[in-house]
Every structure is written in C-alpha cells, then in structure tokens.
Design goal:
- The protein is α/β, with parallel strands linked by helices.
- It has 2 domains: 99 residues, Sandwich (Immunoglobulin-like), CATH 2.60.40.10; 383 residues, TIM Barrel (Alpha-Beta Barrel).
- The chain is 27% helix and 20% strand.
- It contains 14 helices and 24 strands.
- The strands form 6 sheets. The protein has a 9-stranded parallel β-sheet.
- A hairpin with a 2-residue loop joins strand 20 and strand 21.
- The chain is globular and about 95 Å long.
C-alpha cells in the first residue's frame, strides 16, 4: 500500500516538478535570553541620581623652554622622555587637575614630528635631531592625557626664534637660516618680526598643521608678542623692525608705529581664532596675556603696561570674542593693593562681554619653603601654599570665572612648599569637569546607549557606550554607586568601553549612571541603571 500511494502521488505531480523530500530538520529549541545585568532605573528612584560634579577648569602649564618642566633636561633617551611625560600626566590626574597645557613650540622649533620646523634642542639636545628610537611626544601626550580624563592643549610661542638658554647651533631648517630677513636679534634673543606678513603666515601654518594632525582640545598662546623691552645702561632699546615699518608706510599705511604694531598682533590673534575653528570647530583657542592690560584699569592698578610695551591689546581680543578662553597671568598676591589678585580678576570679568571662559593664571611655583627658597627667591618674596588656596577660592567666588591655570607643573611634581598637598586637602578633593563651551556645540548630545555584561573572567562588569551617528562624544562620564559611596571617572570616547572589577571584598556597584560629553563639554541626558544582583 505504501508503494501504491507513492505512484499515485507521482502521477498527480505536474510534469517536471521535483519530488518533495521528507524533511529531516528539527526545530531548534527556544533558548531564553540571558538574565539582564542592569535595567533602567525607575524615574522615581532617587537612589539612582548621581551627585552633580563641579564644572571648573583646573589647568597646569608644562613648559619645555629652558627645560622648566619637561623634559627635565635635553638629550634624555626616548624611554626617559616618555617616562617623565607619563609621570606628569599621572600626577595631574592624581591631583584632580583636568587639563594640561603642553609647550610644543618654544622658539620656532617643535616637540612633535613636523615637516615645517626642526626638532627642539630642549628635547633631543641638538636642534634638528630627531629622537631615537623615534617617537612623537605630542601624539603620545594626547593619547595618554585622554586616557586619564585630561584635556591636552598645545602651547605655541608665536614669534620667539631663539631663547638664550639654547646652547647648540641652529638647524639648517630653522627660520633664522631659511629666511634670515624675517628674524631679528634683540638683546640675547632672536625674534621673528611681527610686522612681516610671512611671519604671520608661517605661524598660522604651524598652528593649523598641528590642529589638523592631532586630536587636541585646545590651542594656547602665552604673553610673548612683541618682546619685553631689552634694558641698556641708557634705558631700553626699541625692537628693530624698521624694514617692515618702512614698507608699511611706503604702501600708504596711516597708523602710528605703535598702533601698527598692535594691529599686527591683533591680526594674528584674529586669524588663529578663525583658522583653528575652520579646521576643527571644537578646538578651543586661548591666550594668557600679561595680567595688567594697562595701568589704571582698574583705577588702583599700577605696573607694567602690556598694551604699550608688548603691543598686546588683550581687552580687544576678549571683547570681540577672538578667544574661547582668556588666562590673564595674575601673578600677584591678594593683599598687594596695586596689583591685587581679586581686584584684577573682577576687572577682567567685567570686560568679558561675549560670555567666554575666564581662567586666570596663578603663580603656583612661587610657593617656596622659606628655608629652601632658591632660584632667586627669598623668604621675603616666597609665598605660602595658603596664598594659592586663597586665590583658587577667590576665583570660585567670582561668578565670571570658572577655573584657573597653575604655573607650573614642577610645583606639583615636587609638592613645592606643600602646595599640591594643600590644594588636594582644601580645594581639589573631588573630580571636576571642564566647563562647557556651548558656542562651539550644535546642542546637547542624545542619551548614550549603554550595554552591560558580566565578565566571566574577572567577575566584574563590562560596559560599552555609544552615541548614534553622526554624533561624537569626547568623554563618557561613568558614575558608580558601591556600598554608600559614589565614584566618578571619565572614559575616553575612543575606547567606548570600561571594565568595572569587584572591590577587595567582592562588591560590585548597585547603580550606574552614564553621561556623554561632546567635544565642547556639553552633556547629554544621563542614563541611569540598576545592577541586578
């Protein structure tokens, strides 16, 4: 009967049709999904609300000129250079600082791989000599800083061509050799003439090249524009820019010589601001001018006239929004009436008509032990650590200021006069986020997608975090609640993942909060999760 039935079925099939085969596949059993590791918190669950972190810029200058901070001396091996740089970044992270301003162009040279200017003598011991084994300090600094939750700003000197602390010969590639007409000897220095348009073009080219090739958070200029006046027995000598000045006059220029010099500097600042933001709109541009704009501003202030002597009209840059942050070097103590720190800070804040960042510079390295006040310091002019603590407090009390920058890193590396310890004890005991720059952002990013898995090897948690394209994060702020404590740390967005290992007694967090921060520091809505036990 079974054979007969098969014949009937074949007859019933259309011509050319295939005989169906008996199915041997079995349906896979349904596998339940793994149990959830973390679930969204209820909107009413207040235990999922992490503490809000302070928004405060805590920067530090790392000077390479004269080997002030890094490298400690020229000609160190690559391993020694790298180890010193890591020690700086580790200490900055441990001190709860959040930004490093690294000097990469002290004198028409480079502490990074450049096709425009020669390697710096302060790095390798001989200008133009590449480090061996080869490495790129700036690329390494950016990567390692971001891995520690630190911003990295590249610090350029726009005009200085040689500092008297340099001892070796100039490289054949140095501007004094390739374009000697652009460089002037002035006292013990060589200086590029700000009146030469080719000098401005070169500085712009150097800055934009670095911005394009490195993942920087900021570009920074210091207070050296036209040089400080060189003193002689008969007074001071004028900067030797007769060649560029005569060309300007011959071309029909009508400004006075002083106003022409100021306009040369104004043009450079304005163009750097424009070119940096054209290359990467999220990179901050900041300047740290001399702390007094002009004597008499405000009325009680006396001292050096940077407007007249350095031809730096920093109030104009500030008022026109040509900088994203200004760091006037307020290197005087609070009680000094003619240059009082809080009085000057208040005045600078009043000039900030465009709502940019005001982060004053502090002379933190002036803190010395009275018994060990070297380098020209005496017990009379050395400061106690409490002076810097009071200045940070003063900046916090000024609602138009949102942070400070410390000069320089050496004070923290050696805990000079106990200043690092005192700051950690009194004012920097917590993690702080760099203040946002909303004018550089397209709006708050979306809440991130957060995935949490158990790590079978460590017994901990593995987190991955992402934003929907084309949105880009600079950081993910991860806040964890374990026991009775909240802890906060920044995860570099290039990693997008983080491991949370159990504590020594086997505890894991019971709450997780993740917030995305874009490149301008603007925060997303937080994602709050409860960890399933």
């Amino acid at each position: 009967m079974r054979s007969f039935a098969l014949i009937i079925a074949l007859v019933a099939l259309p011509l050319g049709a295939q005989v169906p085969k008996a199915s041997t596949a079995r349906r896979a059993p349904t596998v339940p999904p793994p149990p959830a590791v973390a679930v969204p918190c209820a909107d009413t669950d207040s235990s999922c609300v992490a503490p809000e972190l302070r928004r405060e810029f805590r920067g530090v200058w790392v000077a390479s000129v004269s080997n002030i901070d890094w490298p400690s001396k020229p000609g160190l091996s690559t391993d020694e250079q790298r180890a010193e740089l890591l020690a700086i970044l580790d200490r900055a992270h441990a001190e709860h600082l959040n930004a490093v301003i690294l000097q990469v162009r002290p004198a028409a040279d480079a502490l990074y791989k450049s096709s425009i200017e020669p390697w710096s003598e302060y790095l390798t011991g001989q200008q133009g000599r590449a480090p061996s084994p080869a490495w790129d300090p700036l690329a390494y600094a950016v990567e390692q800083a971001h891995g520690r939750g630190l911003e990295l700003h590249a610090w350029f000197n726009p005009y200085r061509a040689r500092h008297p602390s340099a001892k070796g010969p100039l490289s054949k590639r140095h501007i004094a050799n390739t374009a000697p007409a652009l460089v002037k000897k002035y006292g013990t220095h060589l200086w590029m003439d700000p009146g030469e348009s080719a000098v401005r073009t070169r500085t712009l080219r150097v800055v934009v090249d670095v911005v394009r090739r490195y993942d920087l958070d900021g570009v920074h200029l210091d207070d050296y524009f036209y040089p400080y006046k060189e003193k002689t027995a008969n007074g001071s000598t004028d900067f030797p820019d007769a060649r560029s000045w005569k060309r300007y006059v011959k071309g029909g220029g009508t400004l006075s010589r002083d106003d022409w010099r100021r306009e040369n500097v104004n043009t450079l600042v304005r163009q750097i601001n424009a070119q940096v933001h054209k290359a990467k709109p999220w990179v901050k541009f900041g300047v740290s001018p001399f702390g007094i704009w002009r004597p008499g501003y405000p009325e009680q202030v006396k001292g050096f006239d940077a407007y007249e002597q350095l031809y730096a009209d920093s109030r104009l840059w500030w008022a026109n929004g040509w900088v994203d942050y200004l760091t006037p070097q307020l290197y005087w103590n609070i009680s000094k009436a003619e240059q009082s720190f809080p009085v000057l800070l208040k005045w600078w804040g009043e000039q900030n008509t465009t709502g940019r960042h005001l982060w004053p510079g502090l002379y933190t390295s002036r803190v010395k032990e009275a018994t060990a006040a070297g380098n020209g310091m005496t017990a009379n002019n050395a400061w106690k650590a409490d002076e810097i603590v009071a200045q940070v407090d003063s900046a916090r009390a000024n609602l138009r200021s949102s942070g400070v920058v410390h000069f320089s890193m050496k004070a923290f590396l050696t805990d000079q006069g106990g200043v690092g310890s005192r700051l950690a004890e009194k004012v920097y005991g917590d993690v702080a986020l760099v203040p946002p720059s909303p004018w550089m952002s397209k709006g708050a990013p979306s809440a991130p997608t957060v995935r949490v898995k158990k790590n079978a090897v460590t017994g901990g948690l593995s987190l991955t975090m992402s934003l929907p394209a084309p949105q880009v994060a600079r950081w993910y702020l991860l806040q964890t609640h374990t026991g009775d404590l909240w802890a906060s740390r920044l995860v570099a967005a290039c990693a997008c993942s983080e491991e949370i290992t159990p504590t020594s007694d086997g505890q894991l967090p019971d709450r997780l909060v993740v917030t995305a921060l874009d490149r301008a520091g603007v925060a997303s809505p937080p994602v709050r999760l409860t960890v399933i036990r």
